[in-house]
Each structure stands twice: as structure tokens, then as C-alpha cells.
Amino acid sequence: MATANDRAVLEVLFNPLFAEIPPETDDLDDDVKDWTPSNLEVKAVALAETGRYRESLEMLTSLLARNDVSHLDRASLLNDSAQVKRLLGDTTGARQDIESVLELRVNRRAQRQALVQKAILERLDGRPENGLALMRQAAALGSRFARTQLAVHKENPYAALCNQMLNRMFAELRGECQ
């Protein structure tokens, strides 16, 4: 098992641009240290990764319906379910799952994953400033992805221009612009 120092050394080696930022860890989540997803959850995620979203969602939904699901498992399953629903185009269902995770308040990992997903939905819905605020919250909880997004947004004017063009494109796809 790697120590926090081992992870910090690896972070410097593999992500030298973010070396001054502590690596994404769950050291503050004592209840998550020994937690691993169930085999069925891993299978559901694998189905989604192969594009079998409906099967994945059915499996995740049946797992969430079980009475023996812990709060940690429920948060993880809801985050997975939200991701699959977003990929299926069900942003309303994805938002409901994300809000459920945030209401559970079980651990930093679940919270930051939900915040990142919520930020992505905000961006897709044409609210980039809301998305940016949510990314800041996720970064404060230790999300490496959110920190990277914030760094790109802040330091790269070309990325900002690209985001602006993407927002315009999404607006056109939704029929909001001509």
C-alpha cells in the first residue's frame, strides 16, 4: 500500500505542472480508505465503458433498490448512475442522482465526483460560470480533474476561446441561436 509521501512523489513525476498541488487522496476520509466498489458495481461500470448504457443503468438501478446498500455504496452507485444517465441524454435524472449524492454528504470523494458532474451539466446547459464555481468547490475537496480544468481555464486564453465556441455550438444545437 502506498503512503501519502509515495503518492506525492509519483504525482511530481507524472504531473510536473501540478507538483505544488497535493495529489488527489482520500486521507481525510477514514471511512473510504478500505472501501472498494462491489463486483456488481464494477460490472455495471464496465458495461457503460463498452457503450451498453441501458444494461449498465438497469444494473445500477437494481443495486440502488437493495436494502443492504451502505451510504458509501449508495453515493458511489448514484455517481455512476448519474454518469450513465448523462450519457443517455437524461440530464434531469442525472441531476437528481447528483443532488442525492450531495445530500448524503458521506465523504469528500463522492462529493467531489458529484460536483464535477454537476459542473459539466451546468456547462452543457450554457451556464459556464456556474460550472466554474462548482469546479472550484470540487477542486477545494481535492479533485485533480477540477484543478486541471481551472488551471486550463485560468492560464490558457485559447482554451477560454474554445470553451466559448463550444458553448455557442451547444446553444445552436439546442436551437437557442441562429
From TrEMBL:
**InterPro entries, per database record:** TPR-like_helical_dom_sf (IPR011990), TTC36 (IPR038906)
Question: What superkingdom heads the lineage?
Answer: Eukaryota
One annotated GO biological process: tyrosine metabolic process
Q: Which family does it belong to?
A: Belongs to the TTC36 family.
Query: Know the name of this protein?
Result: Tetratricopeptide repeat protein 36
Source organism per UniProt: Galendromus occidentalis
Output the lineage of the source organism: Eukaryota, Metazoa, Ecdysozoa, Arthropoda, Chelicerata
